[in-house]
Amino acid sequence: MAGSVQPRQLAFALPHAESLTRDNFLEGPANAAALALIEQWPDWPNRIMWLAGEDGSGKSHLASIWAERSGARVISAHALAAASVPNALATGALVVEDLKAGSFDERAIFHLMNLAREDAAFVLMTARVPPPALDIELRDLRSRLRAVPVVSVAPPDDLLFRALIVKFCADRQMAVDESLVSYLVGRIERSYAAARLTVELLDTEALRLGRPVTRALAAELLRNA
After folding, report:
1. How many domains does the chain have?
2. How much is the mean pLDDT over the chain?
3. What is this structure's pTM?
4. Using the 8-state DSSP alphabet, how is residue 199 labeled?
5. How many CA atoms lie within 13 A of 172 on its CB side?
């Protein structure tokens, strides 16, 4: 009909399952030390270890692998309270995820470290940065955390970055070709988060526009980003 307005296609945010098993973990020089830590358990240099890395670098994936092996419980740092520490350590192993300055109970973490030492329990803490970079007010906790060994995940190299893009596309059941992957590798920020967000954008916009995921679509979206 002349002059009619075509309805805009809506893109629905459907959940995308991401496997966090050892078989689905992408290895590379950037995460070799972190993966070695997980695989060397229980022969750790310390019963409390700190895993640092940027958002999307695979810390939660590695923690999930370790939790499966060790029987560890997993809790977000902001959700840990002092009263719940004994129960959290009930299995003898615990993952405390995403420690951010000002977002967790410092006394609860201090109590956790003390109890873990008394009970000879294992604790894996994850954060974007090493402990010295956090603004910790409790002096005893600050001192205790600075003594925790740190293993870091480095930024991805070319091969890992390319593999990440392919994996994130596969997680969303997106069919992509080599030209698209090569284009993205050369155009977007070299970070785990950028790879994930770019693939999410491509998937969302392809669905909204009713178009296939191609290099041409990526060029349009990145040009307007």
Report:
1. 2
2. 91
3. 0.85
4. H
5. 23
Same domain for 134 and 171, yes or no, is no
Tens digits of residue pLDDT in 189-202? 999 999 999 999 99
E-assigned strand segments in 28-92: 48-52, 73-76
pLDDT digits (tens, 9 = 90+) for 50-92: 999 999 999 999 999 999 999 999 999 999 999 999 999 999 9
Distance between terminal CA atoms of the chain?
A: 34
88 and 42 part of one domain: yes
SS3 203: helix
Q: Given phi > 0 = left and psi -120 to 50 = alpha, else beta, which region is 188?
A: beta
Q: What is the pLDDT of residue 225?
A: 63
CA dist., res. 132 & res. 142, Å (int) = 8
Same domain, 134 and 185: no
Closest CA to 100 of 132, 69, 78: 78
Give the domain range for residue 180. 158-224
Query: Per-residue pLDDT tens for 105-142?
Result: 999 999 999 999 999 999 999 999 999 999 999 999 99
Residue of 183, 188, 193 lying closest to 215 (CA atoms): 183
